[in-house]
Amino acid sequence: MKKITLLAATAAFTFAMTACGGGETKTEEAAPAAPAAEAAEMKSYPIDAASSSVNWKGTMVGVYSHEGTIAIKEGNLDWKGNDLVGGNFVIDMTTINPTDSGYTEENTAEKLVGHLSTDDFFAVESNPTATFEITGSDMTAGTVSGNLTVRGKTNAETVSNVVFDEATGAATGVLTFNRQNYDVAYKHAAKDMVVSDDIELAIKLSPAM
After folding, report:
1. Full DSSP string of 83-104
2. Residue 33: count of CB within 10 angstroms of its CB
3. Quick check: 134 and 173 in contact, CB under 8 A?
4. CA atoms of 70 and 56, how far apart (whole Å)
5. CB 18 within 8 A of CB 27
6. Is the pLDDT of residue 174 over 80?
7. Average pLDDT, integer, range 93-107
8. Tell me, what's the pLDDT at 28?
9. What is the CA radius of gyration of the chain?
């Protein structure tokens, strides 16, 4: 009876020592967790106004059009990795410059600029700048979304046909907006009807290097 009791006690002691690590049994260490992927860094690049540009185009009753240039005053582009996530550019409305040839001695290019600057259109004296605030982009679709402000009126707009030049960092695209949404219109409805509602802006933005 004593021998059985001694054997049982020995077995219990051996089991206890094994459970407490006294035996040869080893527990495998857990593999180290994989490092978390680094978040894309946000970077902001100022726009080089001198090498950036906007070309505008407006059509009269679908028959003929006027076009020209207008200067970019300042701006910046905000990138997160390969995505354009923010930024803005400011257009100097005092620099409207016609470049087409559809003028006469009576209806000169200077006369057009004067008219476009009045309250019939862009009211340049009280609204010397227009702005576009970038809110996001879809690189696959080639679009940039944002808020356009003209004559103090702001509306959501989309820049289409966006192309990025990886070598220079420049971005180009086309913004077509309805002028009626910004109160850019003749006071007389009959005169306003002969002007297309759509104004097209071909935009080129170059970052300062």
Report:
1. EEEEEEEEEEGGG-EE-S----
2. 6
3. no
4. 7
5. no
6. yes
7. 94
8. 56
9. 34
pTM: 0.79
114 residue type, one letter: G
Q: Is the pLDDT of residue 190 over 90?
A: no
Name the one residue in this structure whose structure tokens are 């857990």: 30
Residue with tokens 């009876």: 1
CA atoms within 13 A on the CB side of 130: 27
Hey, what are 7's tokens?
A: 């054997």
> Is there a contact between 43 and 78 (Cβ–Cβ < 8 Å)?
yes
Residue type, 50: A
Q: What pLDDT band is residue 35 in, cutting at 50, 70 and 90?
A: low
Token duo for residue 201: 């802006």
- Give CA–CA dist 160/181, Å, rounded: 19
pLDDT at 191: 79
Tokens of 175: 């913004």
Query: Quick one: pLDDT at residue 113?
Result: 96
